[in-house]
Amino acid sequence: MKNRVQTGLLLIFLTFLGVLGYNAWLLETTPPERTYTEFYSDVKNGQVASVHLKGSKIRGEDKDGLQFRTFSPDIPALLPLLFAHKVVVSSEEPATLFDKLLTMILVLISIAFLGFIFSKGSLRGGNLWKENRFQIKAGSADIKTFADVAGIDEVREELKEIVDFLRNHEKYNLLGGRIPKGVLLQGPPGTGKTLLARAIAGEASVPFYLIGGSDFVEMFAGVGASRVRELFGQAKKSAPCIVFIDEIDAIGARRGGGNNGSHEEREQTLNALLVEMDGFSSNETVIVIAATNRPDILDPALLRPGRFDRQLTVSLPNLLGRVKILEVHTRIITISKALNLTVIAQGIPGFSGADIANLVNEAALTAARHKKQSVEMSDFEEAKDKILMGLERKNAAINEQERRVIAYHEAGHAIVARFLPETDTLHKITIIPRGIALGLTQQVPVEERYTYSLVYLLNRIKVLLGGRIAEKIVFNHLSTGAANDIAAATDIAHRLVCEWGMSGVLGSMVYRQTQHQFLGDVDIKGHFSEATAREIDLEVRRIINDCYDETEKLLRNHNRLIHDLAEVLLVNETIDSEEMEIVVQCYSKTEKHPETDANNREESMT
Ligand code: ADP
Ligand code: MG
Ligand code: ZN
Question: Residue 526 pLDDT more than 80?
């Protein structure tokens, strides 16, 4: 409905523009007007060269070549005078009523035509007179195949099976198996849920109805509910078929939240959906697939048996998954032979399929900007940095003293990460400001981690603290540049105590303070006393302080190296792990520190 109003407004605006333009054009081409008296005396004085008569309107040109127009009350009386003064006379018939009507009809037809074109373009699903407006036809541009979906094999296989159910439903019915009615795809944004929907459309070879949850959400009460009925009406007629409701949370959110109008409307829509899903029996073979990023806010009624009782989780891809998704998306760009997708995938833990698609595109653009023949490793590196950290701010106003502090800060992070065991591998250290960060020490995990050891977590805190401690050792001052590091370190220490039960003092218990508030219901998960809260605070502080002391000891032991590394950073701005290793090797040769040997990393765990 909103679309309609918009289209209407657009039409009015266009017509208005047209009228304005026409008037401007008329003004441009209409000569200035003369009074009849002026004209009459001009003719008498022999000033007028020619006139053109149309009805009682007169256009003319005088002997100086000036154009004018005027209006005669009595043409027949004027004619003898014109001829007497040798004025060239031409004439045409005046516009009849019929002419005027004809122009008006033409204008109306073109406006209607325009309106039709616009409604085609922007009223997707709004043209109520058309049958099957939800159905996707094979061969339309949005269609994908299962080959376009990578890295989420289990989910893909499940869905393939369901498509197979539909194709051979007689066989399954004979065996007495009950075909699932509803399948809910859930998972973080960008993991390929919508993509899967399009792939099913491309492969199912049964009618496929695709609709977004927000298409049901309308300004006017009852429209959403009637759309649901309309959709299922069509679907039942063309069974076996698939109905896909994308972003179902738009209608499927928990009922009983607020009490304003839009909530009521959504409740009606949701109720209609529940009724429809209960309404067809399982041998009617309409399968409803829905997708959501927010399964937590869905109304529990949707998840009951007989509705969306099968739930598939589409998770973020792991290393192998990322490689496969990279393969899919690099198919359409020209990549260099030396490109190693596994190495790229290792550097982007936590990227979703959509992030990877974006990365590949960004890398291709980068390569184009550097006028390369093919996309190379360095383009991916640049694209990744741009996505993860924002654009380099090469010209950010940073004075020399600040640059020195940043260099020592980053050197501190890097050295701690280099010398402690069970830390992520160093990848890159830079003092070029990016996004909001002034400098960055980047680490990448050696392999996918699903669980973290206590040692890893404590060392992670130490790496975070290393920046500030280096600043303190060298300049003996504290700066706000470490604020994010401190916050992150505190967060880890806090979760260590409260979520992961790793503190000896507080034991293996979960202390959750979070309150989740979803549409009215307050959901407090676990609570604890004031005394416990105090204990938690003390424990978190102890962990941070212990880590701080140990890190300070480590960095003081390698004081020279901090200076060496910071100097190299000040000159080179960005160094990678190999370059860092060279600096460390030079330092250990001159300083003779046995523990700088990488195989003999300092043991400093409690
Ligand atoms: P969701 O609906 O889960 O939020 P989408 O399906 O809209 O995510 O994904 C957006 C885009 O990201 C897709 O069009 C596709 O280009 C890319 N993408 C996401 N997941 C995958 C995947 N598993 N394989 C290949 N491409 C993917
Ligand atoms: Mg989606
Ligand atoms: Zn830092």
Answer: no
